[in-house]
Write a structure and sequence with these properties.
This protein is α/β, with parallel strands linked by helices. It folds into two domains: 2-172 and 223-251, 3-Layer(aba) Sandwich (Rossmann fold); 190-220 and 254-328, Alpha-Beta Complex (UDP-galactose 4-epimerase, domain 1). Helices cover 40% and strands 18% of the residues. The protein has ten helices and 14 strands. The chain has helices at 11-22, 55-65, 79-84, 86-106, 140-158, 190-198, 226-241, 259-270, 294-300, 309-328; strands at residues 2-6, 26-31, 46-49, 67-72, 111-117, 162-168, 170-172, 205-208, 220-221, 223-225, 247-251, 257-258, 276-279, 288-289. Strands 3-2-1-4-5-6-11 form a seven-stranded parallel beta sheet, sandwiched between helices. A three-stranded mixed beta sheet has the order 12-9-14. The chain binds nicotinamide-adenine-dinucleotide (NAD) and galactose-uridine-5'-diphosphate (GDU). Galactose-uridine-5'-diphosphate is lined by residues 77, 79, 117-119, 168-170, 188-190, 193, 205-208, 219, 221, 259, 282, 285, 289. Nicotinamide-adenine-dinucleotide is lined by residues 6-7, 9-13, 30-36, 51-53, 73-75, 77, 92, 96, 115, 117, 168, 170-171, 184. Its EC number is 5.1.3.2.
Length: 329
């Protein structure tokens, strides 16, 4: 059996591919390389360069490779960009996912795992936020992902497949063995931007808003190590293979850090200061969001290994340094 990983040349997808390959699975990656990299795909996996919205291509892959499971990471991921270009986000996240799902259903795919997001919740009143909290996204990005969750729910009621929609909180860090990491050009994610700034690749970092209703006024997020997230997917896949019901599950650790706390951690880990400037709020940002992650533990036995912010930052910095050496070659 071969697993199809869409977006497997991207940040999280490339870690997933390594995790599957390490477990002896056969893997095909479908990625159009818009933000991903050919070199990021583990050599044991087969990379097909193409678009998930290309139903003919996906149908051919499903038939030719005997695909029964899809892990779907491909998409557009930047919250403020989605505020500026909502239709582009609905196209690449919702419409393209619909096309992929149509090919999956027609091709007899049995299990589907989907990259959803904490952004579906908006700024929840009660925290940590459980999956039972009604979604109230504050950005087109969050809405585009929630719409895909709803399509999965309805399609799974009508067709013989099961799914897990995993709502990731803030993903950071890199493969502890140094084989993968975040290589995104012009990245906007806090730990990535802070790592680049700390290593002198950017002149300064801006803190987007210090007037939120949080203890120090900056936004609070639940940062999860990318390798723990990949492990959660493999657990979810095993659960679905064993006949588990479709589910929606948070992936986070259950504790939040403010932007300033993250920056302090980066300073301590790297052992030097860097230029941080206060700036206005960024469109689409929720003030605080922390996961209730008990369902993932109960339903499919997920046990995080890297719930340690300094370690996440250490791995992100190690990758950033390796990336610097790669780009210098
Ligand atoms: N990074 C986070 O903190 C975070 C949090 C929650 C959810 N997610 C979700 O996880 C998934 C992966 O995110 P990432 O951080 O690895 O981003 P990424 O940009 O590194 O990876 C996305 C990959 O998908 C590919 N892609 C995009 N559109 C495509 C299309 N139409 N057809 C084929 N390939 C396409 C890109 O080339 C890239 O390799 C996304 O769906 C994102 O919404 C990410
Ligand atoms: O240079 C920066 C970058 C970020 N931030 C702040 O740091 C926090 C985290 O921002 P990120 O861009 O790292 O992450 P987001 O919370 O905006 O979004 C991320 O996590 C979400 C889930 O919560 C989504 O799924 C999305 O894909 C992913 O980008 C936010 O308050 C943001 O304003 C800064 O102050 N300066």
């Amino acid at each position: 059996m071969t697993v199809l990983v869409t977006g497997g040349a991207g940040y999280i997808g490339s870690h997933m591919v390594w995790d599957l390959v390490d477990a002896g699975e056969s893997v095909v990656v479908l990625d159009r390389l818009s933000t991903g990299f050919e070199w990021a795909v583990a050599p044991e996996a087969e990379l097909v360069v193409g678009d998930i919205a290309d139903t003919a291509l996906v149908s051919r892959l499903i038939a030719e490779k005997g695909i029964r499971e899809i892990i779907h990471f491909a998409g557009s991921i930047v919250v403020p960009e989605s505020v500026a270009d909502p239709l582009g986000y609905y196209l690449n996240n919702t419409v393209a996912s619909r096309a992929l799902l149509e090919a999956a259903v027609a091709g007899g795919v049995k299990h589907f795992i989907f990259s959803s997001t904490a952004a579906v919740y908006g700024s929840p009143k009660a925290m940590p936020v459980p999956e039972t909290q009604a979604p109230a996204p504050e950005s087109p990005y969050g809405t585009s992902k929630w719409m895909t969750e709803l399509m999965l729910r309805d399609a799974a009621a009508a067709h013989p497949f099961t799914f897990a929609a995993l709502r990731y909180f803030n993903v950071a860090g890199a493969d502890p063995r140094g084989r993968a990491g975040q290589s995104t050009r012009g990245a906007t994610h806090l730990i990535k931007v802070a790592s680049e700034t700390a290593l002198g690749k950017r002149p300064f970092l801006e803190v987007f808003g210090d007037d939120y209703d949080t203890p120090d006024g900056t936004c609070v997020r639940d940062y999860i190590h990318v390798s723990d997230l990949a492990a959660a997917h493999r657990r979810a896949l095993d659960y679905l293979r064993a006949g588990g019901d479709s589910l929606v599950a948070n992936c986070g650790y259950g504790h939040g850090y403010s932007v300033l706390e993250v920056l302090d951690t980066v300073r301590r880990v790297v052992g030097r200061d860097f230029d941080v400037r206060m700036a206005g709020r960024r469109p689409g940002d929720a003030s605080a969001i922390v996961a209730d992650a008990s369902l993932a533990r109960q339903a499919f036995g997920w046990e995080p290994r890297y719930d340690d912010l300094p370690l996440i930052v250490r791995h992100a910095l190690d990758w950033e340094e390796a990336l610097g050496r790669r780009n210098a070659r």
